[in-house]
Design goal:
517 residues; mainly alpha; 6-stranded mixed β-sheet; transmembrane; transmembrane helix; membrane; Transmembrane protein
């Protein structure tokens, strides 16, 4: 019997301080304030951050003065976005779409497909089942890409903190005050969203932001670590499954009799395969497998990265630029020194001592990250399995647009109408099993010897994944095609779903065990 892993110990308490950032009287030796005046707290609408596929994430350098005007004063910030500037903007944009838009998109798509299927069953849906399928596809992508803008129609918006837009870049004095207010911005935020990449804990600011958030035990449950690579992989899995489902629907649509899937002209089948199925299976899936292996290898290195963390070895952009603005020639504040002084105020026995040889506060912070923060980080990332709500939103949702076709078959073949309704539920089970087999293949590929090139590993594990899918699906098809008895359909379908549950539950348990060990 495996003992229950112990709950992580509380993070070291930090004495509350009364240091505040004022608009005047800036001290070069100041540390980061834990509080900030209300008129300095600014947030920016999330849809502005997502414009142009995250063009605001392009670089961390100086920007036009009007970028600061995109943010506005707010009493509270919905989410504080913590990220590093070396990670590509497309990856971070997809991660934000996943966190903030994917569940609304899946929910609206599900509602749309249920409504259209009901109208189809009553014979009230113009255009038949293709209209229902198109409506499900359209609403999903409309909400996925434009949910933040749609919220503005009823005067609602998500205000987030993004340093480039909420800290002035055009005025050095305002920029200094904004940087010194970072701790206060965190204190006024309802949620911390970490866009994690392998570089994250090598950046002083990133480690400080996460530790600053977690120093208050009651806020531990309100932060979320989102690997940007996992978001990209979920999106690629969604693309692969959507193309496959759409190709199958096109194949059925081109046939003369949608009630007989096998009676399709050879030319139609070849055309549909080349336009939809082959590109997905020969390009999207291999690329997904290749980068899935790379992401899993990064996660395998994370425990060592956490155990060997040192704030003294962390990097900052200001040090890379020798503390000189390359555009204006003006001196830059040393971010490392600001972080170090703040840590001294929090953890040093004598916060006012400036002895260069006294690094007790840095060692204390390193211990915090290695022994306490790592517990929460590994618990969040776990075995690399994304939260199930995102798997549902991006993977299982690809089965929603298929429902109108099955409803049409049920209405058309009234003698065996229940067969098609029951048979539909194999589709979401297949999508979930596909993603599980993909994650399993990534883990196997990541554990192959380093001498095996990654592209060869991707090909090998892709064939293994295909074999697993065949073993999962073909027994069901052999049973239902040999018997139209109700018990055969229900039992075989139940077996499919029991297998899916058995496969997914251990992944979440493994995530918790890794976090608690």
């Amino acid at each position: 019997m495996v003992p229950k892993p112990p709950e992580p110990a509380a993070l070291p308490a930090v004495a509350e301080d009364s240091e505040r950032v004022e608009c005047q009287g800036f001290d070069e030796t100041a540390s980061l304030a834990s509080e900030v005046d209300s008129h300095l707290v600014r947030g920016v609408a999330l849809d502005i951050c997502l414009r142009g596929w995250g063009s605001t994430f392009r670089s961390s350098g100086s920007d036009r003065g009007d970028s600061y005007s995109l943010s506005k004063v707010t009493p509270r910030i919905s989410a504080f976005l913590s990220h590093d500037w070396q990670t590509g903007r497309l990856s971070k944009t997809l991660a934000l779409l996943l966190v903030f838009n994917s569940m609304p998109a899946a929910s609206v798509s599900l509602f749309t497909v249920l409504l259209s299927s009901g109208l189809l069953a009553l014979g009230w849906l113009p255009g038949g089942w293709p209209t229902g399928c198109a409506a499900a596809y359209g609403t999903f992508y409309l909400v996925l890409f434009f949910w933040q803008r749609l919220q503005r129609l009823w005067c609602s918006e998500t205000l987030v903190f993004l340093d480039k837009l909420c800290i002035a870049q055009h005025n050095d004095e305002l920029k200094r005050h904004g940087i010194l207010s970072l701790g206060g911005f965190l204190a006024r935020s309802n949620r911390l969203v970490v866009l994690w990449s392998p570089r994250f804990f090598t950046r002083a600011w990133c480690a400080f932001e996460l530790a600053c958030w977690l120093k208050q035990e009651e806020r531990i449950d309100s932060f979320e670590l989102v690997p940007v690579a996992a978001a990209l992989l979920l999106c690629s899995a969604h693309l692969f499954l959507t193309i496959t489902c759409f190709g199958w629907q096109a194949w059925v649509y081109l046939s003369n009799d949608v009630g007989s899937f096998g009676e399709v002209k050879f030319g139609q089948a070849i055309l549909t395969g080349f336009l939809f199925i082959l590109p997905a299976w020969l390009f999207v899936w291999p690329v997904q497998t290749y980068f899935g292996i790379a992401h899993t290898q990064d996660l395998l290195k994370l425990p060592y990265q956490m155990r060997s963390f040192s704030i003294s070895a962390s990097q900052c952009a200001c040090c890379t630029l020798n503390h000189v603005n390359p555009e204006t020639g003006q001196p830059l504040i040393c971010d490392r020194q600001l972080v170090f002084r703040t840590l001294r105020r929090w953890y040093a026995k004598d916060p006012h001592s400036e002895s260069s040889g006294d690094e007790e506060h840095l060692r204390c912070f390193d211990t915090l990250v290695r022994e306490r923060l790592s517990v929460h980080v590994l618990r969040s990332l776990g075995s690399g399995t994304p939260p199930f709500k995102y798997i549902f939103a991006m993977v299982a949702s690809t089965a929603f647009p298929v429902l109108p076709l099955y409803v049409h078959l049920s209405v058309r073949n009234r003698g065996v109408h229940w067969v098609f309704i029951v048979d539909y539920f194999k589709v979401p089970a297949l999508t979930l099993f596909f993603f599980w087999s993909a994650m399993f293949a990534w883990r196997m590929g990541a554990r192959l010897p380093a001498t095996v090139p990654r592209w060869i590993a991707a090909i090998l594990v892709q064939f293994m994944s295909l074999l697993l899918i065949g073993c999962f699906w073909l027994p069901y098809e052999s049973v239902v095609n040999s018997s139209y008895r109700p018990w055969a359909f229900c039992v075989s379908l139940s077996v499919l779903w029991v297998e899916v549950v058995i496969l997914y539950v251990p992944l979440r348990c493994r995530c918790r065990r890794q976090g608690g060990s």
